User: What shape does this take?
Amino acid sequence: MKRRSGFRYAVLAAVVIAATLFISPHNASAVDYIVNYDKRLPNGKICRVILGETHWHVGNAADRSKSRSQRKAIKDWSGFVVFEYGRRYGRWSVANKRSMRCEHDGDKNVWRCRAEAQPCRR
Assistant: This one.
């Protein structure tokens, strides 16, 4: 996994704080557009971006079956994305830069899976 710079998060925090303190509610949508917005990719997908960087979401799950754990991790990813951006962004099949990592926990005899992707729509 790529390490994200602490500086980027500091800038993001500063922008959010400035938006909260100095911008009236009438201009709040303008700030949201600058910080967290849609970007059309060359492949035609429209994906969520924050401060010009890929915006990732993660879903986690555990189950005795690897395939069930993978499905649950995708469902967890999708559920949060739908909550945050709406149903049209919650399709795993449309998400950009999808990855699935699973590890078997022999002590508890379960598979732990992590689904990670950038929310997108067509």
Observations:
- The two ends are 26 Å apart (CA to CA).
- The domain at 6-121 is CATH 3.10.28.20 (Endonuclease I-creI).
- DSSP finds three helices and seven strands in the chain.
- Helices lie at 6-22, 28-35, 66-85.
